[in-house]
Design a protein that fits this description.
heterodimer; A: MetI-like fold; 14 helices; B: mainly alpha; disordered N terminus
């Protein structure tokens, strides 16, 4: 009986902490969305409010009335993230397929190499990358933010781990007997089997590409090529110094698509997070 | 056996062919820039738009020495480590606490999935946006934090939070913790769920309480996951850029929020465009990260495979020893 009471108290405590942590995750964004609908004067009087106001359209007019166009940033980010994700997932699966299905001399050294380089972040090699891109005159070309995504060692590693148990070699052999070409077998048989893994990796690839600030900041100087995170960093600049409502609106516009997508896919995303560290 | 080998070699060329796109792109966009960055560190390359570089003849390591003796670099490196340590410790503690709650079979928590989703949410939001949002929260003279601080009487008049070195660093630490504890929790929970339930059952039968079970059973069994979290978090922490770069202008008072990544960026892409010094600093961080990923590589290697290889070797040795013994016996017998 006593034990039961103790468990109850512990449980209440646990819920209490969890609810506080959940509130910490939600409240900052809630304040942001609410302030996006309030006028600068309202925000100056009381910066914290949980009730939306009516100045959304006015804030939008101020926001778009300044020198840059957020829609361009949105468009550029969509182009880069979509293309980078498509290239990355497709070729990572293909590379993993080469490692899993075929028996070639350099297979083991190649995979060891992939594992060895998978943690090296692009950031520490940015000086060389920038110099190279500058020399061939390709700064301000979105393609320089897309093509490097094709070679993603950690994604190859993940795809291989997933492929080994889920793609039995017998299927490939059966396809061969039926006269299928190797490339055809990959596209028509391996890719569909890999769909769940591809979906998980696609989400993370898209989000990290969408959120990337460092590389675009280094490569892009033309305002027409700016991505969403660069646009966001401009919100701190002088032109928005006194337009609080417009700043909150700008921030909300970058967050809204992410939150909507997240809430739809949350189940898969949370399940995918853990796959990186726990094997098999 | 021979037949099988023939079949394999017939197809093995596709292994090479399918790797070509990956290898080509990796060589051009990852490996080449690594060597380029390393080379730039030994040259006099500086100035916007300059691409001609000359290797330093008098003292090849001049840039490296310069960076190491540079006060700002030292400060930024100390900041990076300090911010990482201060965010990692609370992060792992919160994550362990949540794990111990969410994996305890005795007190089933309702809405575990919901909490996981909400805890992880800040992680997917653009870090740049989060930085600007918190800058607005701590705004001066008007911002939600000042609004609350005045309302509840902590201060008489609005306070310029970002003028304080420790508050600026503290906010970076808070944001980092807040963005990453969900990720850490989910990983550790998955690690605990991977432990065989029988171990927990027998602990319960033996009368172990909550605390004993957690420290004696759970913790030792999630060593690998914990090390994975540690190494990946450290590598990420060493590259911290978005939040410290955007939260306060000009890295705050006394470069309070300047991290090594911000230092490298400032050296190379502002002021006098010192690509050579930025290259040298990058290379030092690169070496540090390579060492760390070597540790991770060691941790993630196929343990089963390594064990199998050991076993095969052992058997071979035994067979050899047996053969030798037999030969010896035979010799003796004759």
């Amino acid at each position: 009986m006593l034990d039961n009471k103790e468990t109850k108290i512990i449980k209440i405590f646990i819920y209490f902490i969890c609810i506080i942590l959940a509130a910490l995750s939600i409240v900052p964004f809630w304040i942001m969305f609410v302030n996006a609908t309030r006028s600068t004067t309202q925000i100056q009087q009381h910066a914290v409010s949980f009730i939306p106001s009516t100045h959304l359209l006015k804030n939008y007019a101020i926001f778009t009335g300044k020198s840059f166009n957020a829609l361009t940033g949105f468009k550029n980010s969509v182009i880069i993230s979509t293309c980078a994700t498509l290239l990355g997932t497709y070729f990572s699966t293909l590379t993993a397929y080469a490692v899993v299905v075929y028996d070639w001399k350099l297979r083991k050294p190649f995979f060891s190499f992939v594992m060895a380089v998978m943690m090296i972040p692009a950031q520490v090699t940015m000086i060389g990358f920038y110099q190279m891109v500058y020399r061939i005159g390709m700064t301000n070309h979105l393609i320089m933010l897309i093509v490097p995504a094709l070679a993603n060692p950690s994604m190859v590693f993940f795809m291989r781990q997933y492929m080994i148990p889920s793609l039995p070699i017998e299927i490939v052999q059966a396809a061969r007997i039926d006269g299928a070409k190797e490339f055809y077998t990959f596209n028509k048989i391996a890719l569909p089997i890999m769909k769940p893994a591809i979906a998980t990796q696609a989400i993370f690839s898209f989000v990290s590409s969408w959120n990337n600030l460092f590389t675009p900041l280094v490569l892009l100087t033309d305002a027409k090529k700016y991505t969403m995170p660069i646009m966001v960093s401009l919100l701190k600049g002088d032109i928005y110094r006194t337009e609080f409502g417009a700043v909150y609106l700008g921030l909300s516009l970058t967050v809204l698509p992410l939150i909507v997508v997240y809430l739809f896919l949350a189940k898969y995303i949370v399940a995918g997070v853990a796959l990186g560290s726990v094997k098999g | 056996m021979k037949n099988k080998n023939n079949i394999n070699s017939k197809y093995s060329k596709f292994g090479y062919i399918f790797c070509i796109p990956f290898v080509v792109v990796f060589l051009i966009f990852s490996l080449y820039p690594i060597f380029y960055t390393a080379a730039v560190g030994f040259t006099d390359l500086k100035g916007l738009g300059n691409t001609t570089m000359h290797f330093l003849k008098d003292d090849p390591f001049a840039n490296f020495k310069n960076v190491l003796s540079n006060g700002t670099f030292r400060v930024s490196f100390t900041n990076t480590i300090k911010i990482w340590v201060c965010n990692f410790i609370p992060q792992i503690l919160i994550a362990l606490l949540i794990t111990s709650w969410f994996t305890d079979k005795r007190s089933k928590i309702q809405g575990e999935g919901f909490f996981k989703v909400i805890f992880y949410m800040p992680n997917i939001i653009t870090a740049a946006t989060v930085a600007i949002l918190f800058a607005a929260f701590f705004g001066y003279p008007m911002g939600p934090m000042n609004d609350l601080a005045v309302k509840f009487g902590f201060v008489d008049q609005p306070y310029e939070f970002m003028r304080s070195k420790s508050i600026a660093q503290g906010v970076v630490v808070f944001i980092q913790t807040w963005m990453w504890y969900g990720y850490t929790s989910i990983n550790i929970i998955a690690g605990v769920n991977g432990i065989s339930p029988e171990i927990f059952e027998s602990a319960e039968v033996d009368g172990a309480n909550r605390t004993q079970t957690f420290f004696k059973i759970t913790l030792p069994n999630i060593k690998t996951v914990m090390l994975f979290i540690l190494v990946t978090s450290l590598i990420g922490g060493l590259n911290m850029f978005d939040i410290p770069a955007l939260l306060v202008n000009n890295s705050g008072p006394d470069n309070a929020t300047k991290t090594t990544s911000v230092f490298i960026y400032d050296q190379a892409f502002s002021g006098s465009y010192l690509y050579n010094r930025a290259g040298a600093a990058s290379m030092m961080m690169f070496v540090l990260i390579v060492i760390l990923s070597a540790i991770l590589f060691y941790l993630l290697r196929d343990k089963d495979e390594a064990q199998l290889r050991k076993l095969v070797k052992k058997q071979e040795k035994m067979r050899l020893a047996e053969a030798k013994a037999e030969a010896l016996l035979n010799g003796k017998g004759v």
